[in-house]
């Protein structure tokens, strides 16, 4: 375990020498910050997700996913004390041309609704990117503010010379697996969190989230090598100033090595792409008018060896040997994120469109979601 100062110095050195690294804290243990520091300048990728390390994959499934390999990295960690950072309600930065952005996002939404009425697809997730000034704020200081502000998210900073600096605070698990057990979630429907107010969901949000659950559930049930698929009751999940509807879905894989096939079946899920997947993806690529890059892709720990302490009990030795080589994967969908480039933060936000969508509300939803990153850009 490193001291916080030492830990962030190591990250800064890595950034100064332009070598890939990732630092992150997971929702279940949010004060523990871990990092993979790649030892050399090399560029690694993973196609089948059978490698071990930290993966950073784009939205478009056929494009390569970067990997910081476990075997080529220094792994460091620290306990993070966020008490020195400004917290609570903060102001937020605004971009200059929001009227133009509003008009073009609403036009995009209207075009999608026409397409839904024609029967081309049932749901499509439409997004935009917005550039705001990050000023003189240093990337690692922004990351520390995100860590102190969003305790229940997967908070990360990723750097690779070929992708630039990305960071975010995502609420959405793509797949979590340990040995042959796996878990995923159907997350959709959005409203602003208001303290002290009871939460009611409208039909549009309930239906939209049910689409996502039933697509994931059916896709998993139909897949070879997947068993015992179960879905929880939907519940409300808070992510910063935003609320979503969430259903947890669990199951079993025939082999722990099949994680790549599972991810291939899920990504991009209807929570970030649409339904049916192919026609929604086509609409996104033809109409969004910008490149999502790694926004709504996925990132996280891939096939990480699980540390298991052996006991001296001889009767259980077979089991223990199995446990000693078991691996864990925890991948998140890259949402509520931004790319930092020469003092400019490009924030990425989107939302699901169905036949019942109202263009102005959909614009407002992206504005609300953009606050997650905007509020960490103020000194
Ligand atoms: C697409 C985003 O979020 C996704 C879309 C949601 C929605 O349409 O309500 C809710 C949660 C996420 O699955 C985003 O945050 O940019």
From TrEMBL:
Which Pfam families does the UniProt entry name for this protein?
A: Chorismate_bind
Coiled coil spans: none
Domain Chorismate-utilising enzyme C-terminal: residue ranges: 102-308, 327-369
Record's InterPro entries? ADC_synthase, Chorismate_C
SUPFAM superfamilies, alphabetized: ADC synthase (SSF56322)
Name of the protein in question:
Isochorismate synthase
Q: Which organism is it from?
A: Christiangramia salexigens
């Amino acid at each position: 375990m490193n001291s916080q100062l030492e830990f962030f110095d190591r990250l800064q050195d890595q950034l100064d020498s332009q070598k890939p690294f990732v630092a992150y804290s997971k929702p279940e243990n949010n004060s523990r910050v871990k990092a993979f520091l790649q030892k050399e300048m090399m560029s690694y990728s993973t196609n089948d997700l059978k490698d071990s390390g930290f993966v950073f994959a784009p939205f478009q499934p056929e494009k390569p996913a970067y990997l910081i390999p476990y075997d080529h990295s220094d792994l460091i960690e620290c306990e993070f004390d966020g008490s020195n950072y400004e917290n609570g309600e903060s102001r937020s930065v605004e971009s200059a041309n929001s009227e133009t952005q509003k008009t073009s996002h609403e036009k995009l939404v209207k075009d999608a609704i026409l397409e839904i009425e024609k029967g081309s697809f049932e749901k499509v997730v439409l997004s935009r990117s917005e550039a705001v000034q990050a000023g003189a704020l240093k990337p690692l200081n922004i990351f520390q503010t995100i860590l102190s502000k969003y305790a229940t998210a997967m908070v990360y900073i990723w750097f690779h010379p070929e992708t630039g600096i990305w960071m975010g605070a995502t609420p959405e698990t793509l797949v979590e697996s340990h040995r042959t057990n796996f878990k995923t979630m159907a997350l959709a429907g959005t409203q602003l969190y208001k303290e002290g107010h009871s939460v009611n969901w409208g039909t549009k949000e309930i239906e939209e989230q049910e689409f996502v659950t039933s697509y994931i559930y059916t896709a998993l049930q139909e897949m070879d090598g997947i068993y015992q698929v179960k879905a929880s009751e939907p519940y409300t999940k808070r992510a910063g100033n935003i609320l979503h509807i969430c259903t947890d879905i669990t199951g079993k894989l025939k082999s722990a090595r099949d994680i790549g096939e599972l991810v291939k079946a899920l990504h991009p899920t209807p929570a970030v792409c649409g339904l049916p997947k192919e026609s929604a993806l086509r609409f996104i690529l033809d109409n969004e008018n910008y490149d999502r890059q790694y926004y709504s892709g996925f990132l996280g720990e891939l096939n990480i060896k699980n540390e298991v302490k052996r006991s001296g009990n001889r009767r259980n030795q077979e089991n223990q040997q199995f446990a000693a080589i078991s691996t864990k994967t925890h991948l998140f969908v890259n949402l509520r994120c931004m790319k930092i480039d020469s003092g400019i933060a490009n924030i990425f936000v989107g939302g699901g469109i169905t036949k019942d969508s109202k263009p102005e509300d959909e614009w407002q939803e992206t504005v609300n979601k953009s606050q997650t990153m905007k509020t960490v850009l103020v000194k």
